[in-house]
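Section 5.1 Outputs to date
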Amino acid sequence: MNTQPQLRLEFLGAEPLARALSDTGAPHLPQSQLADHYAVGNDALRRALEGKIDHLLSALEPQLLPARVPWSGVRADVLALDMAFVEHPAQPFDLAWVEIQAFTSMLPTFHTVHQAQRRLHGQGERWLPHDALPHETSWIDHMRQWVAPHAATVLIEDRPRARASWPDLEAARHWWQVDVLDWREVVPVHGHLWNPVTARHYTHVWNRLIFSDLAVFDRSHARATFLAANQLSWHSHPAWYDGIHKGSLADVPLAAHEACHWVEDSPLCADQWADADRWVAKSVGGHSGSGLLLAPTPAELAALPGPRQWIVQNKFRQVPIGQHPVTGRALFGEIRCMLGLQPGRKPWVMAWILRCSTDGIATLSGRQTAPGEGMTLLYFDSAGASA
């Protein structure tokens, strides 16, 4: 058994993957967002990932308490955790935190890709891109108890059909038979939500609405709507999303190569940012590539607003995790762990997602066109054998 974390990429090919995706019978996914590989990690990599996640959860424990947000139905139920493969002096790579968020819109797309890749990669059923499930329980049914526990579930977003994430939301309709609505299409009635057009009541919300993305008037209107619907149950509550964000990493003690700091912290800005090239700056409310300064100048850093609106993070150097067999270009990777938090049980991994790129900048929203780039899945042998 290899004691060092290892990862290997297995080539699928764009055309076979396209056929396998079609065979799933699920809604169309833009294949330009999908990598033509899948990845297999060994047991040492899984232990390294789990160790970093355990440390993060321990440090964030005070922020995961429901009492910190005065809103009925709020609880910590999901974390989206991103790590990059970076240089290590004695091992093939180290892991570095990139960001932390709190939503699950990628899960339906994850399942579609998993169904397609299972048709192609030829591994046995014990090879899973998520934690093991209870015996004779499907991933769809296991997730249904959480994201869509009954028929009166609605997935809420702001103008969902106009978003790049629409394929994710359409896949949610396919796999879990939920309605997908703009938040303006529902009104509060007797503590629940009502759609006047379809005459449907909803008692559970699978949320993808981000209050901080809305204009000031819309934000006030949306908050009033959902505060009035005070009998709802939630998956990924909007207040929970706004409470855990990129800035949360600045409150966690991290190794030097991945450490984050609030931009207004005096030890960093006292020298007028003479070493500005050390840092990447990130807005607390940024996502999908927004609110990101990869090469900030001293003047830009000095002008960033505060308090607790922007963080800076040490730049790190990513290492290639593979090479594309057709183009020969090096591929870099970031792992997104979709972590489920439920009362009375250990946190469980809903999805191990690998985002591949040729330039070390991974995004799930930007359309990738180079072979090998985009989203794929990271598999582990659930029986414990190393890769």
